[in-house]
Amino acid sequence: MTQKIRIAILGSTRGTDMEGVATAILKGKLNAHIEIVISDKKDAYILERAKNHKIPAIYINPKDFKDREDFDKKVIEKLDEKKIDLILLLGYMRILSPYFVSRFKYRIMNIHPSLLPAFAGGMDLNVHKLVIEQGRKVTGCTLHFIDEGTDTGPIVLQESVKVEGNDTPQSLKEKVQEAEQRVIIKAIYLFQNGQLKVKGKTVEIIGK
Asked: Which of 53, 112, 128, 144 is labelled catalytic?
């Protein structure tokens, strides 16, 4: 068994994907522990989800800081206290500062609700609405390491989702979120087993 890894989750929304991770840990599929959940939104439901799982949940108000880097340094302070190995961005609506990115290089993963590079920079229901409006037959999700750009980091995993004729943005979101949870769980497993190797802009999965 690999050494247990310490996970932090940063989120600004409902944190639906966190349920999948927490459940996988409870079922023994991952040798991991969610140490902390941090949100920049006081009323984000992800904080309530964390409390339901007895996970420490913290709201940090961006208005208390002069700039993005100062805010990020406060977040990093909390992460360092917990000796975090891996950071998951699940519906996190903030762009990380270069300082944050360099501090945790290739240890920050972001889930995006499309098959990047399609709809890079888009968020939540807006992405699913555009997918339907443009008549796309296939969409999906992408998990990638964070770099200094917006949705431009090395791609870890993707999973495609078929778009049906009767799909709405909400129904498509629900299908994509199911794929997101599968992808996140698989990526955590690969990460904790040392099977992810970044080479330039690509991620090699060792020992597939």
From this structure: 112
User: The CATH number of the domain where 163 resides is what?
Assistant: 3.40.50.170
In degrees and rounded to multiples of 5, residue 104 shows phi and psi of: -125, 45
DSSP state of 139: E
Beta strands in 70-165 (DSSP E): 86-89, 108-112, 138-145, 155-162
Residue 123, pLDDT score? 87
Q: Which domain holds residue 66?
A: 5-205
Q: Total domain count for the chain?
A: 1
| Inter-CA distances, 174 with 115, 124, 165, 201, 206, Å | 16, 11, 15, 29, 31
Report how far residue 114's alpha carbon sits from residue 131's, in angstroms, rounded to the nearest whole number: 9
86-142 pLDDT, tens digit each: 999 999 999 999 999 999 999 999 999 999 999 998 888 999 999 999 999 999 999
33 carries an active-site annotation:
no
Characterize the bridge pairing of strands 32-39 and 57-59.
parallel
Helix (H), strand (E) at residue 16: helix 16-26
Q: Which residues pair with 33 in a beta bridge?
A: 6
